[in-house]
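Troubleshooting: if your tokenizer reports a length mismatch, compare your output against this known-good record of 315 residues.
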Amino acid sequence: MRRDARQIAMTISLLTSVVMLVGKLMAYFLTHSAAILSDAAESVVHGVATGLAAFALWYASRPADVEHPYGHGRIAYFSAGFEGALVFAASIAVLYNAGVGLIRGVELHNLGVGMGISGGLAAINLGLGWGLLRVGRRYNSVVLMANGKHVLSDVWTTAAAIVGVGLVMLTKLTWLDPATGLVLGLYIMASGLGLVRGSFAGLMDEIEPALSERLIRGLRTEMSGGRIVDFHQLRCRRVNDELWVDVHVLVPGELRIDAAHTRVTEVEEAIRRLFPGETVRINSHLEPADHERAHPGGHDGLTDPLLAAARRRTE
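Known-good structure output:
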């Protein structure tokens, strides 16, 4: 059912992107508005990006195999980054068109009809973007969340275009139309760069502070409860909708191996309960408590990056 919900959401997004593109191009040809053209250009990119996102969502859902033992989830970050690059490219085209409009001037027509079409499309996109983010957050889908943010950015560009056209109708100052296009171009550029930044963070396994702090608190709770003596070499990364955790767990050296294994299994289950509804894959390394003698200098930030980062945030 989880896969079905995400695929349904993406299919609706793909079909809606086609409707958006046709509608906005129609509004542009009726008005010749630079602001509406800027909005339409962003929708062209969005349609291409949504098609790629649909493919990435399908590919990421494939199970692990011999050639991909960790699964196929990382394609989600590539998809989000590529979508951001397309958005950035669209912003360049938008800025160029708006600049030409400011220099040469524009001739506008049927502004009321264009505003009506754009307003209706913006309302549809608002509902779609909200729905995509809701499903994406529920299932930790990077693809859906990136697509949802892109849809919502499309809403704001459409709203800004409507405001720009409305100001032209009220003031008769046609230069306000390409000026609005410039503002929209800069906003679209910032949105694209944000998507690229998030993609880079995911591909590079950047630490999520809230996630690492939850893990550390959970493991310290297990320490205070007496199940384990200590832990170190804690690492984690999120790959689309899966959370991977690596940790070295210290237990009393006098425990039998089966008893120690039982304790660590209980600790792993406690960690999984910290992330209800998520797929948590844990690789734990069992060590005797006196194993610390082999590390007289302790563990530095490179050995325990999550613990070091947590310390820095509390300093």
